[in-house]
Design brief:
Helix content is 87%, strand content 0%. The chain is rod-shaped and about 120 Å long. The relative contact order is 0.04. By secondary structure, it is mainly α. It has 1 helix and no strands.
Length: 92
């Protein structure tokens, strides 16, 4: 009878070997999970960097687009003022 598992047809040596195999499997499982976790963390960091760069590009694009709009509106208003003077002089 085994002292560890209290089974009559089991020897102490078999129980010890089973427990060692189980511990080895558990250690392998833990190391596999740690490796997978590290890979996922690396992937998330890459994705964070990409999204940060994308946000920065889009924010700069919006800012530059605002300046372009102001510039074009200014040019258009100058053109309209000039056109008004021209049409006034033509009608006189």
């Amino acid at each position: 009878m085994c002292a560890l598992c209290k089974v009559s047809n089991c020897s102490l040596l078999n129980c010890i070997l089973k427990k060692e195999k189980k511990r080895d499997r558990d250690e392998h499982w833990v190391s596999t999970l740690k490796l997978q976790h590290n890979k996922e963390c690396k992937g998330l960091l890459v994705q964070i960097r990409y999204l940060k760069a994308k946000f920065t590009r889009e924010a700069l694009f919006r800012d530059h687009l605002g300046y372009q709009k102001q510039y074009l509106l200014e040019i258009l208003s100058q053109f309209e003022r000039g056109w008004g003077v021209l049409s006034f002089s033509l009608s006189s």
